[in-house]
Fold this sequence. Notes:
- The chain is 9% helix and 47% strand.
- It is mainly beta.
- The protein has one domain (6-97).
- The protein is globular.
Amino acid sequence: MASDKRNFALREETGEETSVFSGSTPRQAALKAARRLEPAESEDQAPRTTFSLREKGTKKLHIYEGWAWRSDAPADKPDWMPEMVTEANVSKEGIEHLDEL
């Protein structure tokens, strides 16, 4: 089934895995992780941060550069949505294979 969710662990430089993000693709999980970064005032000002996600059950490490920024919510937003939202983008830097877990 194409819509199966996969789990990706946010991996720190120390090897510790601190959070898990799910998505049907690594990029989808990376966008969720990037939204947790400290947002800048605009996309142009957003600092780039490199992070890696390990696909659970594998030794594949997906490496991304991500950035986040604040923007106005869409005009047709639902009532529960705040006036300002955090948006994010990512750029895949590559894949590494871990020797061990």
